[in-house]
């Protein structure tokens, strides 16, 4: 959630569905809105994770909150850049107003800096420059936004560029998020003169005193973030200052020069930060595009992305065992072509009609016929295999019966001629007894810190999801980390909260 959001004392209940999106869990909670992780599902195991930002029920009836929410949707809709979180959909229904946004699987830059500080580490300069190029490139795209119909330039001013609003996925491609207080220049604003909007410690002087904001305001805030990345600490210290002292420091622009903490930085970077952090907005003559080019010239930003991925690795949640060692899907012992021709036509299951491709097909989510077909599939497969084996055995027996009886080549012995007695034959040696194991080997117990989730035979061939991620596929025993887990069998199964015992097993159904 953004840094300016205020946490509620008691959390409201979690809704199960918003429009056609199934809610999985809450990602953040603010004063008037919440951010939820949701899933959009369709045919053929289609599933996409999204982040849904919705107004809380009490804020939906507030006309001012609705206008601000609509302005955020307009700001997102005018932006299309890989370094900016994308808007997928807008939900406007009676009592419901929500934005469907791109889900960034990672952490906020503020959390990454806090984790590095806790480990006694600092972000590599190349990695800091890489994040800076992503943030300034996003601002350059926002400041060059156009009106969708007229094509005239209509800059989108973010007004809240902070480490909390820079999302860093595990692959390192950082994205600028949260245009909740953004200003769209060709729309009537909702900010009165003298009203302050922004985050403490990251506001430009004109924001603190209530003067009009401009694209130079975003440059100032982004340079504060870059200053913090290079120095390892916030440019304006917030902890030891009271609120009024902090406001005075931001209004007067008391930012220590970067060369005091980092005298080894290139002189071009020092001069660029000095221009971007000028107290007077008219003296901030450097643009986001200039800063992107400068950072690429002074640092190896591609190497910096690799360093950033290394720095993210300790902060990444430990993956479930099933994500690394996925159980293989059992292979069929009979070729499908042979099975199809061995089963009589009367015993073959009718093929279902083709399903039209619709992302919001209710029949694919709730039709019980599909579940019945999935339960009958193993029985039909077993019947077909048995029919094939019986047909093969009958064919061998018929071939053996059709073979002619062998006729001896020599004539029978004459009774007048005495035949010699056949030599005594040595009896065959007794068969060597083969050792048969008294019992089947025991199944491999789970590893330390792990437990087993077992599924019923009716769920054979289905995938098992644990905490929203694929744990195993086609296996009746799934090894996962023990503890409180949310388990779902199949893409359309119901989510179940279970306690997986360490070293033990727990059985679930669909």
Tell me what you see in this structure.
There is one protein chain. It is built from 15 helices and 18 strands. α4 runs antiparallel to α10 and α4 packs across α11. The protein is elongated. With 510 residues, the protein is of the alpha+beta class. The strands form five sheets. The protein has a six-stranded antiparallel beta sheet with strand order 1-2-3-4-6-5. 33% of the residues lie in helices and 18% in strands.
Write the layout of secondary structure elements.
Blueprint: E1 17-18, E2 21-29, E3 33-41, E4 47-55, H1 57-60, H2 63-77, E5 87-93, E6 96-102, E7 106-108, H3 109-118, H4 125-143, E8 156-157, E9 166-169, E10 175-176, E11 183-184, H5 205-209, H6 215-231, H7 243-252, H8 258-261, H9 267-276, H10 288-298, H11 301-312, H12 321-324, H13 336-342, H14 362-366, H15 368-402, E12 450-454, E13 463-466, E14 469-473, E15 477-481, E16 483-489, E17 496-500, E18 505-507
Q: Beta-sheet strand percentage?
A: 15-25%
The span between the termini is 34 Å
The helix fraction, in percent, is: 25-40%
Main sheet: which strands, in order across? Answer: 1-2-3-4-6-5
- Give a count of the beta strands, DSSP E runs of length 2 or more: 18
Radius of gyration: 35 Å
What is the averaged pLDDT score? 78
- What low-confidence regions span 5 or more consecutive residues with pLDDT below 50? 1-9, 321-344, 351-370, 405-419, 432-441
- Sheet of most strands: 6 strands, antiparallel
| Structural classification | alpha+beta
Rough shape? elongated
DSSP helical segment count = 15
